[in-house]
Amino acid sequence: MLLTVDVGNTNTVLGIFDDKELIRSWRVKTDPRSTADELWLQFRALVEDYSLTGLSICSTVPATLRELRTMIADYFEGVPVTIVEPGTKTGVPLLVDNPKEIGADRIVNTLAAHTIFGGPAIVVDFGTSTNLDVVSPKGEFLGGALAPGIEISVDALAARAAQLRKIELLKPKNVIGKNTVEALQSGTIFGFAGQVDGLVDRITAELADSYSKKPIVIATGGLAPLIVGVSETIEHYEPDLTLIGLRLIHERNA
Predict the structure, then answer these.
(1) 37 included as an active-site residue
(2) What residue ranges of the chain are covered by domains with CATH 3.30.420.40?
(3) 134/122 Cα distance (integer angstroms)
(4) More exposed terminus of the chain, fewer Cβ within 10 Å: N or C?
(5) What confidence tens digit (pLDDT) does each residue in 126-140 have?
(6) What is the Cα Rg of the chain in Å?
(7) What is the average per-residue pLDDT within 181-207?
């Protein structure tokens, strides 16, 4: 069985694949201070009931990736491991100014989106940041847009505005809030949906010069459920997109 690990700035998502089927997944907090031994204790508690035959990892947190390498050397000797980094075969051409700047998760999502949905496509990943990644009909990564994530924005507003506080992120009944909480929820949920829709419309207009087909818009990421039902442009929601991409890349490199 294949263990896939997506290390993000806020959360780490782990998934177990039995061949091509995702049979179990977990979401845990990312702590850049965790040592290799602490990571092993956490991983072992989750996957001890499964016989692992491979690992596939991507990380946007260098400190955690360093400790993961040590953990693999100490506890997974002999297990085939794929780490998405420069030099790894992904099958995704990066048509950008500096390919080394592109986060591994964005490359993984591009491969998964093109494999599942084709192209052109726009992947909207709602995480610590909100990433919009543009995929060509050939599966090329064309670039995209990055914006502050939903939770970062809410935390910053609560920290900088004396009379405002951190709120539970829920879709309000109305756009016009009747109290502070409803007003903040409205501005956050409907505001971010409007931001995504606006960016998708602008990206679609730019792509029209090159492709006759409109892009498919796919949402993923831990905060995606907040926006999927509100956005007017998101067509598909695939919560396990990154894990699927990690499986595909491992198959290319195994």
Answers:
(1) no
(2) 2-83, 117-239
(3) 5
(4) C
(5) 998 999 999 999 999
(6) 19
(7) 95
Nearest residue to 28 (alpha-carbon basis) of 5, 54, 58: 5
Q: How much of the chain is in helix, strand and coil states, percent to nearest 5?
A: 40, 25, 35
At residue 69, what are phi and psi to the nearest 5 degrees? -60, -40
CATH architecture of 2-83: 2-Layer Sandwich (3.30)
From the list 240, 221, 253, 223, the residue with the least C-alpha distance to 23 is 240
Q: Which residue reads 């993000």 in tokens?
A: 8
- What contacts 41, CB < 8 A, 6 or more positions away? none
Predicted pLDDT at 163: 63
Annotated catalytic residue, options 105, 125, 133, 240: 105
CB of 123 closer than 8 Å to CB of 145: no
